[in-house]
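Support request from a user on the community tier.

User writes: "When I paste my structure tokens into the form, the page sometimes reloads and wipes my input. The last time it worked, I copied everything first. Here is what I submitted, just in case something in the input itself triggers the reload:"
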């Protein structure tokens, strides 16, 4: 890797000490940010003209089931119960390893194209090691910084088989992955566990899974909410057992009481919110505002491209808009009028989509802000575009106006993945054709099974 010097850009560092800089420079040395400031000299560096450009930390998509990329839009009219039945007990059961590979590859590449530099791939359709390996190899091939959260499938049990809620996370698979592709945790790929949690498993399984994650020092992420809990008393017991604390990540959590949220925040639990999908599928209102009242903040994720787009700009905007609407509604009822000021500034939404995602992963010392010494994960936006110009408040421009079409360049660990508005991509059409063929086959196979039933 060479040195790269971005000159005369507007730089939103998301580093509280550095702040935002106008007409500033950013120097990349190999895979790290070497300096941020004005009139940086680096005679041997590649010079990138940053005039009319906004540079931000790479976005962090903290929760996405990338294996569903080939089914884009197919589940957009489903409620959560329909999704469980038609996706997990249906379509998911006919996926082959090659389907997982192409979906994960194109899904990750699209995330880069849209300005995401870190993807939490919450993979819970991996009935065999081959399915798991297909996802991992696709993430590696994409060049994305990825946290692979290893999960487990959720089909309807066949006669004589236990329900998935009774099956502990497979220790042997965790050990295999840690000895193989995730042996070096200092690279682009890290491992986490996508466990069932007490909402979707019995108590014994929850205890084993929490303990497994702690034993190996891995983030344990779990869905919370979406129907009746398998173990309603589970959280209280897990807390009493001392198994709940930093490294535990709750996704959604819409059904949690204020007291439960307060307890989890006090224990250092992190939260990932997927606002657009939560609102569409019937989870309930996102917990963003309730976390803010407790001095906490969420990370943000897309969740499902089978339902919504993979656009993290839209996710951040939706998170902000939804919570402002909820806050405004409360204020209007209390005051019988329009609130005098906004309750959330746009910078918070950008924090949720950057540094808060890094905190959730325990990687805030490596990514999430444009801080010297951190990994050079950054996005350059063309602020002269018709939908962005003129720029009066750069953060507002990014959060409220920008979208994937404005992403001119993406760098991950000092390597350009997108330049001049184009992905550094080989065999683009072949990949897209393979994705389309995979989606058609999955749907056709499921239709044949349903007709034969």
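"...and here is what came back when it finally went through:"
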């Amino acid at each position: 890797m060479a040195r790269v010097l971005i000159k005369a850009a507007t730089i939103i560092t998301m580093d509280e000490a550095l702040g935002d800089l106008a007409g500033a420079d950013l120097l990349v040395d190999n895979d790290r940010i070497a300096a941020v400031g004005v009139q940086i000299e680096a005679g041997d560096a590649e010079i990138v003209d940053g005039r009319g450009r906004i540079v931000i930390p790479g976005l962090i998509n903290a929760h996405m089931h990338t294996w569903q990329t080939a089914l884009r839009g197919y589940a957009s009219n489903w409620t959560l119960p329909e999704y469980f039945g038609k996706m997990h007990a249906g379509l998911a059961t006919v996926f082959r390893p090659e389907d997982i590979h192409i979906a994960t590859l194109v899904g990750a590449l699209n995330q880069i194209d849209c300005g995401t530099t870190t993807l939490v791939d919450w993979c819970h359709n991996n009935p065999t090691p081959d399915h798991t390996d297909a996802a991992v190899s696709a993430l590696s091939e994409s060049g994305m910084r990825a946290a692979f959260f290893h999960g487990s499938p959720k089909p309807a049990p066949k006669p004589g088989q236990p329900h998935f809620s009774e099956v502990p996370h497979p220790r042997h698979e965790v050990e295999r992955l840690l000895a193989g592709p995730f042996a070096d945790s200092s690279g682009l790929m890290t491992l986490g566990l996508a466990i069932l949690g007490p909402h979707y498993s019995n108590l014994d399984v929850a205890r084993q899974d929490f303990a497994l994650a702690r034993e190996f020092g891995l983030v344990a992420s779990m869905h919370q909410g979406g129907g009746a809990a398998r173990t309603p008393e589970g959280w209280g017991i897990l807390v009493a057992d001392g198994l709940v604390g930093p490294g535990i990540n709750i996704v959604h959590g819409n059904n949690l009481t204020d007291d439960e949220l307060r307890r989890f925040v006090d224990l250092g639990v992190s939260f990932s919110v997927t606002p657009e999908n939560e609102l569409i599928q019937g989870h309930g209102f996102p917990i963003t505002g309730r976390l803010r009242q407790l001095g906490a903040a969420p990370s943000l994720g897309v969740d499902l491209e089978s339902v919504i787009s993979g656009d993290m700009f839209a996710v951040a905007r939706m998170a902000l808009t939804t919570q402002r609407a909820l806050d405004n509604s409360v204020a209007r009822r209390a005051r019988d009028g329009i609130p005098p000021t906004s309750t959330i500034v746009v910078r918070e939404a950008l924090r949720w989509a950057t540094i808060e995602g890094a905190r959730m992963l325990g990687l805030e010392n490596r990514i999430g802000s444009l801080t010297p010494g951190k990994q050079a994960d950054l996005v350059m936006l063309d602020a002269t575009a018709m939908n962005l110009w003129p720029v009066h408040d750069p953060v507002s421009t990014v959060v409220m106006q920008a979208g994937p079409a404005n992403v001119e360049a993406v760098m991950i660990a000092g390597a350009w993945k997108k330049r001049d508005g184009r992905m550094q991509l080989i065999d683009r059409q072949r990949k897209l054709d393979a994705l389309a063929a995979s989606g058609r086959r999955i749907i056709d196979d499921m239709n044949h099974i349903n007709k034969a039933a």
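Agent notes: The reload is a front-end session timeout and is unrelated to the input. The CA atoms of residues 409 and 419 lie 5 Å apart. DSSP finds 15 helices and 17 strands in the chain. Escalated to web team.
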